[in-house]
Every structure is written in structure tokens, then in C-alpha cells.
Amino acid sequence: MFRSEKRSLFRFLTIYLLSTFILFSVGSAIFYTLEKHHLLDRQREAMEHEGEKIQHQLIRLHSTFETRLPIHVKETCKIALLDKERNPVFSNFTPPQNIDFTQAYQLINGHILYIKPVDPYYLGVAYLLLQTAINQTDIEELQKMILLFMLGAGLFFLILGYFLGRLFIAPMRESIETMNRFIQDTTHELNTPVSTILANLELIQTLHQCSAKEEMQRIEIASKTLSRIYDDLTYLKLNHQHHRSIQAIDLSALVKERLAYFSAALEAKKIALHTAVEPDVVLPMDQDDAIRLLDNLISNAIKYNQSGGTMEVRLNREHFSIKDSGIGIAKEELATIHERFKRANSSEGGFGIGLDIVYQVVAYYHFKIVINSQINQGTEVTIIWQK
């Protein structure tokens, strides 16, 4: 799956799952509130029924002129009988302070308190109070059920969202594959003539004396530019899937070799090259990745430099840096300049894939890249591999 597809799929899943989660959370919260009230209502109904039974006991005791109060109540309930002054006549618990006697039900400290006025005052009892603990077991079971439902629904919608996302990005994939086939066909057609031009150019320069030195130099620059474009397009087409042979690369020698490769372009633009390359800098990398990294940085430093400008190349055991005196990059574009097909200056040529390839290589080897730039003053790119 291509990076653009992954980004689109991730964004789709994020929006889809977030909206689904919010919807189910609101629904679950409403369901939980209603079910909790339903559970509490059942306890209240049981307390009302218990209050009626106790009142009947009071009536029976009153009719038999009993002065004792052998009131029978469920073990889950506590009872208190109060007179008109709300003093206890009989009680097996301590009623809470500041009770609102105008409300039949109150929730106090995890308990349900039921208040029932007694009229007439049987045996001097004016108020009947019942207290029972809220049934936390049923509430916890309700919470577990909702949690399991949310987890199950989340898993289901995650799988469903993934397949919907794949359908969503299918047209994008078809477009990318079409473009890749075009790039593959184009690069295939470019490879043979470019290789032929370069081979014959080297042969002419080696075996024959040619008076048209400047024209030959232009042909060499154009041919090497085409060759680099071919290599870059091939690298993108492989999309990280090419085989890498990680081995110790003499980066010092490779930097000098690549600078020599671009010497004609440097000379044509009259760029003064300053190097500070520490010898015997060895780094475990794939040879092609190292070449792609260096070539794109050097090529950009030449392309976006001023005619008659300067270019500084530094290499040591901690980092590689290349600095030019070119047009620079606007501060607001630094965060996105590495995106594919993004170009610092539309007046210059290119496809806008150089820094994208650099960032791919940097990400694969867990390097760090730092870009410092100012408009019309130049750009410095530093690749750091040692902490």
C-alpha cells in the first residue's frame, strides 16, 4: 500500500471511528441512565410495598392496644418510626441529618431513603422511614454489559471501516497504479538512449580530441540529468520494495565520487565548491540509497544556486551537510517542502521528487534531517546519524 493510500485510509478510519464512537457513547450514556433509573425504580417499588406492610402492622398493633412495636422488616431494609416532632419512636438505624420530609425518595450516601407519612398517627407514629443500600451489583453488571457491547461494536465497526476505507481509496489506487505504469514505461524508454549517449560521450572524450568542449559539456550535463531522473523515477516506482544490500560504505570516497560526477554542472554554473570531507567515514548503508541521498542533495544545491555562487560540502563521523548560496526556501514552506511533487521554486525545472526520496532514505535508516534556509541567502541541509 502506498503512503498516500495509507494516509487517506488512516484519515478515513479516524473520522469514521471517532464519529461512530461519539454516537455510540451518547447512545450508551442515555441507555445507562435509563436502565439505572429503572433499577432504582424497582427498588423504590419494593420499598413502597414494604412500607405498606409496615403500616398494616401498625394498624393491627393499634387495634389490639399493643404498646410495643415488634415491627418486622426485610433484612435489606432499615426502619425508623418518628413522631410528629420527628423524634424516634422506634429505630434500628440512625436517620441522616437534614432530611427533606417533603420528598418521598432521596439518594443519600449510596442509599435510598423512603419517607412515608402515617395518617392517622397509629401508636404516635407520624413518619415511617425506610433505608436500603442501592443495588450496586446490578449497576456493575449493567456497566459491564455496556462496556462489552462497546468493545464488540468497536471491533465490528473497525473491521467494517477498514473494508469501507479500502473501497474508498480504490479509485486512488487505480490512479496511482496507472501513473506508475506510465512512469515504468517512460523510464524504460529513457534508459536505453541515455545509457547510449553517456557511453559514447565518455568514449569520445577518452579517445578523440574534441574542440567543442563547451558543447560536449552541455551534452554531458543533460545526459547525466536524464540519467538521474531515470534513477529517481525507478526508485519511486519500487516504493521501498527493492532489495537492499546493507554493507559498510566508504562515505568519504562516495562523496568525492558524486561531486566529480556533478563537476560539469558545477563548472557550467561557475559555482565555487568548498569541501571539508573527513577521510575514512564508514556507514552501514545500501549503496544505491547512499547514492540517491547524495545525488539529490548535490543536485538541488546546484539547481537552486545562483550563477557564480558557492557550495560547501562537509562530512565527518557525525553528519553530512551541504550548503548553497541560492534562492532559499520560505519559512512557511519548510514543513512541507519534502512532500512529493512539491518544488521550492516553480521557475526551476524538476519533478519535485528529490527531497521526497531524501526523506524516504532518512526515515528508513532512522537518520535525522535538519534544513535551515533563508530567502535569497541560501539553504543548508544536514543529515545526522550519530546522537
UniProtKB/TrEMBL annotation:
Subcellular location, principal: membrane
Reaction catalysed by this enzyme: ATP + protein L-histidine = ADP + protein N-phospho-L-histidine
A UniProt-annotated Pfam family: HisKA
Keywords (A to Z) from UniProt: Kinase, Membrane, Phosphoprotein, Transferase, Transmembrane, Transmembrane helix, Two-component regulatory system
Example of a GO cellular component annotation carried by this entry: plasma membrane
Domain Histidine kinase residues, every copy: 185-387
Molecular function via GO: phosphorelay sensor kinase activity
Membrane topology of this protein: Multi-pass membrane protein
CDD domains linked: HATPase (cd00075), HisKA (cd00082)
Compartment list: Membrane
Enzyme class (EC, first level): transferase
Transmembrane segments: 12-34, 145-169
EC id: 2.7.13.3
Protein name as it appears in the record: histidine kinase
